[in-house]
Design goal:
Elements (H helix, E strand, L loop, with lengths): L2 H15 L13 E6 L2 E7 L8 H9 L7 E4 L13 H8 L3 E4 L11 H8 L3 E4 L3 H7 L1 H9 L3 E8 L4 E3 L11 H12 L3 E5 H7 L15 E5 L10 H4 L6 E5 L5 H10 L2 E4 L6 H10 L4 E4 L3 H9 L5 E6 L9 E2 L15 E9 L2 E8 L1
Parallel strand pairs: 3-4, 4-5, 6-12, 6-13, 8-9, 8-12, 9-10, 10-11
Antiparallel strand pairs: 1-2, 1-3, 7-14, 13-16, 15-16
Length: about 350
Amino acid sequence: MTGAADARFMALALTLGRRGMGRVWPNPAVGCVIVSESRVIGRGWTADGGRPHAETQALAQAGSAARGATAYVTLEPCSHHGKTPPCADALIAAGVARVVIATGDPDARVSGQGIANLRSAGIAVTTGVCEASARIDHAGFLLRVTASRPFLTLKLASSFDGRIATAKGESQWITGPQARRAVHAMRAFHDAVMIGAGTARADDPTLTVRDMGVTRQPVRVVVSRKLDLPNDCALVRSLDVAPLWLCHGPDASDAEVDAWEKRGARLIECSAQVQADDVMTQLAAAGLTRVLCEGGGSLAASLLQADVVDRLVGFSAGLALGAEGTPAIGAMGLEKLADTPRFSLSNHTRVGDDLMHIWQRR
């Protein structure tokens, strides 16, 4: 295979892997393509819930034709026995002649061992093909393993002057229907959607993906130090549709904790002030790899201050609410520009009558 052919088939594997985003945590959303004589004979991606893995699905589709073929995998094949046998062993048993891997797996149970096992079996291994793209796709999984936190997208929909509500709290709707539909699509590609208690009380959102044919809903996460949330809110009424996790502090009363657990929510106790970095650590420990935060301002500020935001997505509308409106981001206590978190613009596009702009962590 030429380098161009390797890149082309790996690009296909990456595209397949993205189908699992938001649906496979705590596992990575891996894609795999089996190629023989420049023809795709098998393809797969991590199934909902994390199993079966991409390699075993692609090999099952290829059947006996996999012998002597090349496998393109977006992440180093696992080499440990978990709830399923190692994918490296499955590739060896199938008799593939070559495995092309986009990027390595830093999990201590794998971390080069999958590659070593393949080579020990006489299989040619090529690594680093489309690695930059793969590391972007697998950022949530990689961060969970190496930094004990999920990949975090902070989404803000605001007026031209950066306000998310009028002085009296009116916020529906600042942006248009196309922008709101784009947000639903974003939710579908994340493991969880997170908001603060203030947003939960003010907007009474459901935080589900609607009108997009999605069968697996993201977890709804609410950060509420004292669990001071309405017990009949939309999040509770939709517990049969999507799970609800509540991140609270140790000062939340036992009665409130017990009441919320009886309603069906999962309770996660965090540090005394429910600090943003600890919330992220707790969510990673619970298995989440990709989290979309949709506000409000205080939570957004705390996440930025804790330096745990990986991507900013802004939807800016063509209206101004003035200084008395509610700012999109709360107070951060910054005195010097040098101390402010910086992001690089990666994309901008018109969505209906609004502007969507995406910024990546530098």
